[in-house]
Design goal:
By secondary structure, this protein is mainly alpha-helical. Helices cover about 45% and strands about 10% of the residues. It has seven helices and seven strands.
């Protein structure tokens, strides 16, 4: 498990461990907006494990600042540039694995077709274009990786986890619960596990969600 704050990662790891999961967990500091941090994390993984079976690019922020440049820069730095650098730095370790998976946690809000033809009610959020644009850009990062490295055995999946309970919108209870509309994050977890278990291999390179595939 990785994150900007090692203390928060360790706290989250402790919560997961109370569920008596199979296997083991370890914590590592990684800030996707800091390339030195990314390089150190990759070096640690290489020295300790030698390869990487799966990379889950889950870093993400939302920003609805009134200043357009501020909100665009914040979302692009964390949601697009960071994951692109992480994917590039860790890719050599992935390609050493027998069946490597590269998962980008995107969003259904990054689907241009959905937005243009049948946008959900959440699309009406004021100043929400920065987040949506960043997820559309992240989809391109994933598509490009799939096209370039799929022939080398890398299975790339951008995923739409759904509108679930999360700190993405803020840390107060109302924001975390999506003002009463957020679902169970375990649904997102099961989606990722189904990918890692090979159950969604037929959808490789597509924007997948729990019930199927979204159009680009």
């Amino acid at each position: 498990m990785a994150g900007r704050s090692l203390d928060k990662v360790k706290s989250a790891m402790s919560e997961v461990q109370t569920a008596r999961i199979k296997g083991s967990l370890s914590a590592i500091q990684l800030d996707v907006t800091n390339e030195d941090s990314i390089q150190r994390a990759a070096q640690h993984v290489e020295e300790k494990y030698g390869l990487l079976d799966a990379l889950i690019n889950n870093a993400g922020v939302g920003n609805r600042d009134s200043d357009v440049k501020t909100r665009m820069q914040k979302c692009m730095d964390t949601n697009v540039i960071g994951p692109a650098v992480v994917a590039s730095v860790f890719r050599p370790l992935l390609l050493k694995a027998e069946k490597p998976y590269s998962i980008f946690v995107s969003s259904g809000s990054g689907s241009l077709t959905r937005f243009a033809e049948n946008p959900p009610s959440g699309y009406s959020l004021e100043n929400g274009e920065a987040y949506r644009a960043s997820k559309a850009a992240l989809n391109i990062i994933a598509i490009n990786e799939a096209k370039e490295f799929g022939t080398k055995g890398l299975l790339v999946f951008p995923i739409a986890p759904g509108f679930v309970v999360s700190n993405l919108r803020g840390t107060d209870e109302e924001a975390k619960n999506g003002w009463g509309g957020a679902g169970d994050p375990m649904v997102s977890g099961r989606l990722i596990m189904s990918i890692l278990d090979g159950e969604r291999d037929s959808d490789v390179g597509k924007l997948v969600h729990k019930d199927g595939v979204y159009p680009w």
